[in-house]
Specification:
single chain; about 575 residues; mainly beta; 5-stranded mixed beta sheet; 4 helices; binds calcium ion
């Protein structure tokens, strides 16, 4: 009693600043309207990446100049895919090798830095990247490449809690920004190339204690945790043995590596899931649920309410991790997803019922269309890589040339939705791959692919294109081509603007209605991260992280050779209008 009275008095005396500093569920729910902060990955939890700010607009964006830039320093650089957060005069930005910085938003001065101590032998598939943090209470929370989750004090950078999510030696890692919903920090796992078991898990954001775990491979048991931290069975995901042959579900992949979105109107969190393990589809006949899907989970119960599988029985590494962005259309709450497999899907966000699916890339070889009645792809049987067991020596199945490549029509770079134009802005790529299957068996901590591949260009022209898509029709309203594959995300604003970065190093702005390029700035290294905007002291700011890397240089085959001239880096840039 006495203690709580004291707390009240302390709050009354020093409270207004402290109360404003603590991030609450109400503040996160209001994030889209709060133009002074960027409180979550996606800029709002529905993932729209839309700002109502219009001080910077299509008339004056040509006067945008740097306000400050801060280097991540260190000898190690590599890919920088992070979306910064802004709160209470501080920017929180993660960097390669599981680092996080707090920066003064006004001056760009570093306030503190936390460098996670990474053990030898971490196994990130696709560069040593991190995509951002989450804010809750007085904490800033992020996942690390050795599969830990760390919560730091926003003011000091001191560790408040730290939990091990899983065994990095088995291939688990974490690179996505955590999601906060109703006081829970909700995360996925990376490691789909190592036969891990994908899952979504929720923890008490203040303490890090587990609340529930929901596996995303059909057949695995879900758990809830009681007050003492004891695991209680919470129902199997799907039905054991229904869509996987034999024991294959025990190393089934379906990694939830891009994190999730949340919509309070549906009360659901949405996580995409990656490829089934192994890539060689000949050894796992069946749909292999819940791989290459969007799963909608009730955060209160930790149960899957619906799932929609974009690529059943995937044979091309078409991870279905892409973010489901919820939005209003025709009086309903819908979800849109630009999938790695080349199709743009619009679903009922409450039920998961497919409304529409249209190509957002020019060439797709593995399916002709999506059947809107069944929700399933109309496959091109000849474009599935062959069964090695049917080859002469049993070592290499029939090779096919498939489009898109496994790096996808779209990959990790998040799209944006404008409430002003009603258009989605999708960073898309046109490329293909030679791909063939090989025999493989699961071994802990070893690559679990059973496939060989080379990524190839389709022609001599641009690979990337920023495309504006009308979700009502699936039609492409305009596009801005880009020579290198686009790998950064997009933001759109009520100033009739779309912002995005390019591997060539430019942050660009275009007219959101027409795609006419209005401004660009060279950041000194490739941009593979999404921009943000906020206002402070009456001025609007735009920030983006610069630092070339990610999956393209590592996995990109002939395309990687084409862009090998791009230089690494590691910095955050902030812009405002010249006075
Ligand atoms: Ca994958």
């Amino acid at each position: 009693m006495r203690k709580s009275l004291l707390s009240v008095l302390v709050l009354a005396a020093f409270g207004s600043g402290a109360a404003n500093a603590a991030v609450t569920e109400a503040m996160l729910e209001n994030a889209a309207k709060d133009t002074k902060s960027v409180l979550t990955w996606g800029m709002s939890r529905d993932g729209q990446r839309y700002s109502t700010l219009n001080k910077i607009n299509d008339k004056n964006v040509n006067k945008l100049v740097p306000a400050w830039s801060m280097s991540f320093g260190g000898e190690k650089q590599r890919g920088q895919e992070s979306q910064p957060l802004v709160h209470n005069g501080k920017m929180f930005v993660t960097a390669s090798y599981s680092r996080i910085f707090a920066v003064d938003t006004k001056t760009g001065q570093k306030l503190w830095k936390y460098e996670h101590r990474l053990p030898d032998g971490i196994m990130p598939c696709c560069d040593v990247i991190n995509r951002g943090a989450a804010l809750y209470d007085n904490l800033v929370i992020f996942g690390t490449l050795d599969a830990q989750i760390v919560a730091l004090d926003q003011n000091t950078g001191k560790v408040v809690w730290k939990e091990t999510v899983d065994d990095f030696k088995a291939g688990y890692s974490m690179s996505a920004a955590p999601l906060i919903a109703n006081g829970l920090v909700i995360t996925g796992v990376s490691g789909g190339e190592f036969g891990i078991i994908g899952r979504v898990e929720a923890r008490d954001a203040k303490t890090g204690k587990l609340v529930w775990i929901r596996p995303t491979v059909e057949g695995h048991m879900g758990y809830k945790y009681d007050a003492a931290g004891k695991a209680v069975e919470n129902g199997v995901s799907g039905t054991t043995g229904a869509t996987w042959p034999g024991e294959m579900w025990k190393s089934g992949g379906a990694a939830t590596w891009l994190g999730g979105t949340y919509d309070s109107k549906t009360g659901l969190v949405y996580f995409g899931t990656g490829n089934p393990g192994p890539w060689n589809s000949a050894v796992r006949p069946g749909d292999n649920l819940f791989s290459c899907s969007t799963v909608a989970i009730d955060p209160k119960t930790g149960k899957i309410v619906w799932h929609y599988q974009t690529t059943p029985h995937d044979g091309w590494d078409f991870d279905g991790v892409n973010e489901l962005v919820t939005f209003d259309m025709n009086g309903k709450r819908m979800g849109a997803k630009a999938d790695r497999n080349g199709f743009f899907y619009v679903l009922d966000a409450k039920s998961g019922k497919l409304e529409n699916a249209t190509p957002f890339v020019k060439k797709i070889t593995w399916a002709t269309s999506i059947d809107l009645k069944t929700g399933r792809p109309n496959y091109v049987a000849d474009n599935r890589p062959g069964d090695p067991a049917k080859s002469a020596d049993g070592k290499k199945g029939k090779s096919v040339f498939a489009v898109p490549s496994f790096l996808g029509g779209k990959n990790q770079m998040p799209m944006a939705y404008s409430q002003q134009t009603g258009l989605f802005y999708v960073p898309a790529n046109e490329w293909g791959m030679e791909i063939w299957n090989e025999p493989v068996s699961y071994k802990k901590g070893a690559a679990y692919l059973g496939a060989g591949f080379t990524i190839k260009t389709l022609n001599d022209g641009p690979i990337g294109a920023l495309r504006a898509i009308d979700p009502k029709t699936g039609k492409i309203a305009w596009e801005v081509p880009n020579n290198a594959p686009l790998w950064g995300g997009v933001m759109t604003t009520a100033g009739n603007l779309v912002f995005w970065g390019t591997p060539e190093g430019y942050l660009k702005a275009a007219d959101a209605k027409t795609g006419k390029e209005l401004w660009k700035f060279q950041t000194g290294s490739g941009i593979v991260a999404p921009p943000i905007t906020w206002e402070q002291d009456g001025e609007q700011y735009v920030s983006v992280v610069s630092g070339w890397g990610g999956a393209v240089p590592l996995w990109g085959g002939d395309v990687a050779k084409k862009v090998s001239f791009l230089e690494q880096g590691g910095s955050v840039w902030t812009f405002k209008l010249a006075k």
